[in-house]
Amino acid sequence: MLLSVVVPCHNEEAVLPRLVDEVLAAVGPTGVDVELILVDDGSRDGTMAVLRALHAQDRRVRHVSLSRNFGKESAMLAGLAYARGDAVVIMDADLQHPPRLIVQMLEQHREGFDQVVARRTRDGDSVGRTLISRVYYRLVNSLVEVEIEDGVGDFRLLSRRAVDALLALDEYNRFSKGLFSWIGFPTAVIDYRNEARQGGGGSRWSMRRLLNYGIDGVMSFTTPRCGWPSTSGRA
């Protein structure tokens, strides 16, 4: 079995060596082959130089470079298109997605699940942040036609047939949270507690970015056409 691990990267030079070490250490005991696909989303720091060095040290580390900063959705799509694995894990570079969970994901996948989703609990969050999150997801779910679950993001394992289903969709303004839900397939959930972001800085998700992301979801999933989710970018 070949496992692909897809990681969008934007200005992550400080954390990438540790990320690679932790992912390979987590997957090693499972006995599966692994390719780690790091997608440079138009970084302005030394991310690309670090990626080249990591590839030179270990050929299991592959890299894709986008011509500019297209955003995380485009970086994930590029990684999925390059992934050759029988299963694909998508995760963030900043280690808020714990690599150790990949082992549990593989176990669930072997049980027959096409999607194994890591769901972040609200343990340790402030009351205000928890309340804002609940209101945000309640609002978004009242407007879209797929279920967007609080704490569920891009950190997940996808089977090859689930990846192929995503790649077959011709959306070019993508709202992956909705697409993951929309394609279906047997799904398992693993809960985990949020971990501190590595590499410096706080969360990159401001309230404005969250609102814009929610609007993308509303535009993408309120008017399906012929059984396919519509996208705001279509004519």
Number of helices: 8
CATH class label: Alpha Beta
- Binned, the helix content reads 25-40%
Overall morphology = globular
Strand order of the largest sheet: 3-2-1-4-6-5-7
SSE order, one letter for each helix or strand: EHEHEHEHEHEHHEH
Structural class: alpha/beta
What's the total count of β strands?
Answer: 7
Oligomer: single chain
The name CATH uses for the topology is Spore Coat Polysaccharide Biosynthesis Protein SpsA, Chain A
- Spans where pLDDT lies below 50 across 5 or more residues: 224-235
Mean pLDDT: 81
How much β-strand is present in the residues? 15-25%
The total number of structural domains is 1
- The Cα radius of gyration reads 17 Å
Tell me the name of the CATH homologous superfamily: Spore Coat Polysaccharide Biosynthesis Protein SpsA, Chain A
Explain how this protein is built.
- This protein has 235 residues and is α/β, with parallel strands linked by helices.
- The chain has one domain: Alpha-Beta Complex (Spore Coat Polysaccharide Biosynthesis Protein SpsA, Chain A), CATH 3.90.550.
- 40% of the residues lie in helices and 19% in strands.
- It contains eight helices and seven strands, in the order E-H-E-H-E-H-E-H-E-H-E-H-H-E-H.
- A seven-stranded mixed sheet has the order 3-2-1-4-6-5-7, with helices on both faces.
- Helix 1 links the parallel strand 1 and strand 2.
